[in-house]
Amino acid sequence: MHELWEAVITAPSTPRAALVGGGAAGIGFAIAARLAPTHRVVIAGRSPETLEKAAARLREQTGAEVGTLVSDISGPDAAAALEAAGAGYGPPDVLVLNAGGPPPGRILDVTDEAWRAGGELLLLGPLRLARLALPAMAARGFGRLVFVTSTAVRQPQPDLAVSVVLRAGVTAAAKLLSLEYADQGVTVNCVAPGATDTQRRRDILASRAAHAGRTYAELDEQDTGEVPAGRAGTPGEVAAAVAFLVSDDASYVNGTVLTVDGGRTETF
Question: Which residues of 210-221 are buried (b: 16+ CB within 10 A; e: fewer)?
Fold first, then answer.
């Protein structure tokens, strides 16, 4: 059978359900906006007001119905969160594990409590959701799990110790999960953004500027000057990479880290 006709015949009759963590702002919002026209999207976050405003913007921009899930999906109530997300939109076929970054700090200055909080946010919480979602995806014969990490995993930044250490663990976990489910129609990948124009990047640059006694503009120019593309990326460019990884076209892309950083990171 010709591949084109095979794809048409096997295409799902209804849009697949996608749960996007941190979907109220920044990269998470951009991912939700990219997926909404072709998926039944639910965005998750902690603030009801912020979530509803984001969902209203998404509905206006895309013309799609977008659900909200007021929950800390990284917390111990992951099972209840996943069940709630599926109540109106179905169990997620696509799970995008995206969370805000922990506070900056150098490795020996990070407290035990900061390590624990970062572990819940970046590692344990996402793994709880993966543990719940992946078997169900495998049973349906289709699933896409994407962890949003950072290029700091490959080129560590000293003042982002918690993010660097824990997201390295996430990257390893994603590879292990990809091996477990590779023959069951499920893929597990990471997207690693570099300098991206988000509020978190602005906050980090402001913190570095204050610490170094320099201006924000100087740090911004220095940062983008290290990017071969000569600029910071946009959340939409990261979202495009995620959209590819969750598509049928990426069915043979598994266990990889897709870097989105304008060519900055050394990979060889």
Answer: eeeeeeeeebbe
Q: What torsion do the CA atoms of 108, 73, 70, 94 make, to the nearest 10 degrees?
A: 130
Q: What is the mean pLDDT of each run of 10 residues along the chain (268 residues)?
A: 45 82 95 97 92 96 93 69 77 93 92 95 92 95 98 91 96 98 97 94 91 93 94 97 98 97 84
Q: What is this structure's pTM?
A: 0.91
Q: Residue 125 is encoded by which pair of tokens? A: 């919480």
Cβ neighbours of residue 265 under 8 Å, at least 6 residues apart?
A: 151, 154, 155, 192, 194, 259
Asked if 147 contacts 190 with a C-beta cutoff of 8 angstroms, the reply is yes
d(CA 174, CA 198): 24
Residue type, 41: V
Which tokens belong to 264?
């900055």
